[in-house]
Amino acid sequence: MPLGLDKTKFLANKARELEVQSRRKDERITLLETENAMLHLKLAQLRGEVTIAKKETSEFYSDLEISDKFKSYVIEKTNKLRKDALNLKQELVKLKTFVEEMPKQFAQYFNRAGTIFQHQTAAFESRSGNITALADEVAQLKNSLKEITERHALEKKRRQELHNTLMELRGNIRVHGRIRPLMEFDVENEDITSLGKPGSRSEVVVHYVDDENICVRTNKHNKVFEYERVYNSTEKQEAIFDEVQPMLTSLLDGYNVSIMAYGQTGSGKTHTMLGSHRNDDYNPSHDPHPDEGVIPRATRELFRLIEEKPVGTHSLEVSVVEVYNNDIKDLLSRDPNAKHDVVTGGDGQLSIPTVTSKPVDNVDSVMTLVQLGLKTRKESATLVHEHSSRSHLIVTLTVTTKAPSFFAKSFAAEPEGNTSISKKGVVGNLQTTNQQPVVRTKLQLVDLAGSECVGMSGVKGAALREASNINKSLSALADVLGALAEHRTHVPYRNSRLTHFLQDSIGGDAKLLILLCVSPAQRYITESLQCLGFGQRARQVQRGPTKRRLPSSAEKVAPENTQSRPNSATR
Ligand SMILES: Nc1ncnc2c1ncn2[C@@H]1O[C@H](COP(=O)(O)OP(=O)(O)OP(=O)(O)O)[C@@H](O)[C@H]1O
Predict the structure, then answer these.
(1) Among 90, 167, 258, 264, which is most exposed with the fewest C-beta within 10 angstroms?
(2) Which of this chain's residues are annotated to bind ATP (predicted)?
(3) Which of 176, 185, 262, 276 is the pocket-test mutation for ligand 1 (most atoms within 8 Å of CB)?
């Protein structure tokens, strides 16, 4: 500090000076800071420009790359186009050649198409011609079919009417005769070599004359018996059934039908009705065995006829009974010895309510039941042959038919069991089942017991009683037929259980066929004459009333004392 200067003043000056310096420095700092800020700004601007330039450069490079790629793509494409163009040129050359050749080929194709078209048109025309012809033919066939169907229905109706007329003309009781062949047992006590020899006991004396006449010829007898049909000893079971068949149609038309075999022991009744098989070896089958008799054949035919009817309208029941010593025995019952009686219902219809009646739906089931019944049937050996049937066997097939709807209407107004329906031609028993009117008809197939004379069979005691009862019942049968023939007001059905049981099937509108079975041998001549005489009298029933009282079957036929030959035989 200069001398003399005031120290305070000096310091104050110094401070001022420093203050100025400081202010200047602050101003300098501010200036520098401003410059710095401006520089920062400039830097930022430059940085931005650099970034943009970089981006532009990279874009340029990228564009350059793309343009390189595009260039190579263009080159490649150009090459391809060139190639294509070359190919096209070649194609064009080919096309030109083709176009040049086309008219020629078209002409060829056209020609070929023309030919094919001509062929096709011709074929189509002929085919359409055929189709038209076929359509015409179908239309004609349809018309013919309609006509045939109508004609068939008409024919069926006419056949039905004809059948009924024929059955009426033939009569309700018909008699056929069947001569069985000579059998070994016919020789009696003679040597088998004598079988059929003139003068022997087995000499043939019952002869087939023609299909309506049988002749019995010996030194003492010469008599001809005429029936609706006669079968010779070689005629098969089938031939007999041919005659039986129409009766089954009648059965389904509402008539009761009965077919019975009549003849002496060993004359072929069981063979005719059942066949010659015994109980155990019988094999029910769908096809008829040539040996089968009327019962299996009729049953089979009945099922066939029922099959032709509307489903569910017909049903069948079977019962198997025997009339033994004038008692009715149920052969399907557990107690075959229990006795049964024929009962007349309030409606006048007959039935045996206590007898087993089994529903059946095929021939096998029927035949199985028949065979079951046959096992119980009374058989006992006689002097004639070892399987003589000592009872009448009756197989009853009851057909239940649901009445058509118009019956149901008329029935609604009628009391139960009223038979007014018979006015319409239906004679079966009309009943109700759960308010549904039904018609019941019966087919009774009867294998009668042997009709021989007691003395001939050589039986005694119980067997004699059997034979006596057989003769009585057969005699009652003859009496019934006699009463019917004479149109008597009283027909003695109740004289025997056999006729009482068969009452519905004998007389009235019922159809009865009696098959007379005769042995040809001389040793049975009395029985054969009796049997043939019985048949002859039975024929009177359909020939109308006769003044003469018919002798019963037990009465003998008086032998005729003539030696004339068959040609001059009396009738
Ligand atoms: N037409 C026939 N063809 C062949 N054999 C028959 C003929 N008829 C009967 N026969 C035979 O004769 C024998 C006696 O016949 P079948 O038993 O049928 O007599 P039947 O009259 O029933 O006797 P019965 O009353 O005693 O029972 C049997 O062996 C049977 O095979």
Answers:
(1) 90
(2) 263-270
(3) 276
- The ligand 1 atom nearest the CA atom of 274: 18
Mean pLDDT by 10 residues, the chain (571 residues): 76 92 92 89 89 90 89 89 86 82 78 82 78 83 82 72 64 90 87 87 94 91 92 94 89 91 92 74 62 92 91 92 90 86 78 91 90 70 50 93 59 42 42 66 92 60 79 90 86 93 89 95 92 87 42 30 30 27
Question: Ligand 1: residues within 6 Å at CB?
Answer: 180-181, 183, 263, 265-271, 276, 385, 387-389, 449-450, 517
**Residue 465 maps to which CATH number?**
3.40.850.10
| Structural domain ending residue among the three candidates 170, 187, 222 | 170
* Same-domain check for residues 76 and 113: yes
Tell me what ipTM this predicted complex has. 0.98
Locate the ligand 1 atom nearest the alpha carbon of residue 178 and give its number. 1
The answer to whether residues 161 and 194 belong to one domain is no
- The residue whose CA is least distant from atom 15 of ligand 1 is 268
* Cα 38-44-47 angle, rounded to 5 deg: 140
* pTM of the shown model: 0.65
14 known ligand binder: no
What separation in angstroms does the CA of 419 have from each of 143, 146, 238, 249, 411?
Answer: 43, 38, 37, 21, 10
Domain of 73 in residue numbering reads as: 18-170
Which pLDDT value is given to residue 162?
67
State pLDDT tens for residues 228-261: 999 999 999 999 998 888 899 889 888 899 999 9
Q: Which residues are CB-contacts of 498 (< 8 A; sequence separation ≥ 6)?
A: 323, 326, 392, 473, 474, 476, 477
191 DSSP β-pair partners = none
Q: Is 268 annotated as ligand-binding?
A: yes
**153: in domain:** yes
Q: Which atom of ligand 1 is nearest to the CA of 183?
A: 12
8 Å CB contact between 238 and 560: no
Give the model's pLDDT for residue 546: 36
pLDDT at site 411:
46
- Count of structural domains within the chain: 2
For residues 212 and 246, membership in a common domain is answered with: yes
- Nearest CA to 232 out of 271, 179, 196, 185 is that of 179
Domain boundary among 116, 151, 170: 170
User: What's the confidence (pLDDT) of residue 458?
Assistant: 58
Whole-number pLDDT of residue 430: 55
Q: Is 243 exposed, middle or buried (0-12, 13-18, 19+ CB in 10 A)?
A: middle
In a domain, 567, yes or no: no
E-strand stretches of 155-252: 173-179, 206-210, 213-217, 222-226, 229-231
State whether 285 and 385 are in the same domain.
Answer: yes
Return the percent helix, strand and coil in the chain, to nearest 5.
50, 15, 30
